[in-house]
Amino acid sequence: MLLLNRKKGERLIIGDNIEITVIDVQGESVKLGISAPRSVSVYRKEIYDDIVRSNRQAVENMAEIGEKIKVLQDIIRKDD
Question: Are 36 and 17 within 8 A, CB to CB?
C-alpha cells in the first residue's frame, strides 16, 4: 500500500486519466474530488462490497434456478 500525505488543494494522479483532489480536511474527515472517465466506476468501499455480495448471491440463485428448470423440463418430457 502506498501512503501519501496531501494537503487541501493537492492532487494525485492514477494512470493517465484519474485525478484525485483533496477538497477539504476537517478533523479526521477528508473530502476528496475524483475526476475519472465515465467508463471508470468509482464506489465507496462499503458500497462496492455490497455490489460484490449481491452479484455472488445472484449467481448462486441462477444456478439453483437452472437446476429447478431442468427438473421441470424432465417432468414435462415424461408427460409427453
Answer: yes
pLDDT in tens, 9-60: 999 999 999 999 999 999 999 999 999 999 999 999 999 999 999 999 988 8
Closest to 25 in 3D by CA, of 9, 41, 12: 9
Which position has the grid cell 421441470? 72
User: All 3 cell numbers of residue 33?
Assistant: 474530488
Are 20 and 6 in contact by the 8 Å Cβ rule? The answer is: no
**CA 39 to each of CA 1, 17, 36, 44, 61: distance values in angstroms, whole numbers, following the listed order:** 25, 11, 8, 17, 28
The three-state secondary structure class of 47 is helix
CA–CA gap between residue 52 and residue 31 (Å, rounded) = 25
